[in-house]
Amino acid sequence: MERPESIYADWNPWHGCTKISPGCKFCYVYRQDEMYGSAEASSLCRKTKAFDMPVRKKRDGSYKIPSGKIIFTCFTSDFLLSDADEWRDECWKMMKERSDCYFYFFTKRIDRLEKCLPSDWGEGYDNVIIGCTVENQDRADHRLPIFLSLPIKHRSVIVSPLLESIDISPYLDSRIEEVSVGGESGRFARPCHYEWILDIRQSCIEKNIPFYFHQTGANFVKDGRTYRIARRFQRSQARKAGIDFRIGEGFIPETAEYNAETDEDFQLTIDGI
Hints:
Radius of gyration: 19 Å
Shape: globular
Structural class: alpha/beta
Strand content: 15-25%
Number of strands: 12
Order of helices and strands: EEHEEHEHEHEEEHEEEH
Oligomer: single chain
Helix content: 10-25%
Strand order of the largest sheet: 1-4-5-6-7-8-10
Number of domains: 2
Low-confidence stretches: 255-264, 269-273
Number of helices: 6
């Protein structure tokens, strides 16, 4: 199942980020900037030309981003980056204005959220989904308790890049709407073991929390064998695993009960591996 583009939109109000933890070592933003010969360093945060994209309108007065979109926000930076503090309030205002869309951002800086919230946040905006990213046990144990303590309407846990076996079960309850797991991409990607993914999946099933295996990563280890997987196949191979739990069409977490009949073993087959 491919991502249905009609559901999603992208919005990067600023670009560039600084590395703060092990998961940042081979950051895809740095790789992409290098690939395209960016004139500015990836660590230099700068406002983009798309800054006000959510509220731009067509000649007929309608928004350029249609109603009902899920808008992936600030995926070439971190929405809570301190370098962007002067611009964030305006972004919150745009999110509130576009209450007809959902805004979804991931962060490794969940410890900054409280000081970055708008004055009218209350228990959270109904249309903002926040994903807390963790990559190893140390970062999970540090970030997830903070994440659960904050006023957020919609929470997801992003375990990516998965760098080691992680137990997040102590932090899984009804406040978590989804757990998404993936390996690391790129030439120097660190290995991701299939059994680590299955362990997290089992924890999600036990708590009845939607689980999404979004990509294998470039160095995928299954049954003691390492598979080097090209970037263009990493998502499709994750789909072939067939291990998503309570994830519906469009990769949206669903409320349907788990169907054990669909729980089949993952047979990874790629030509030349």
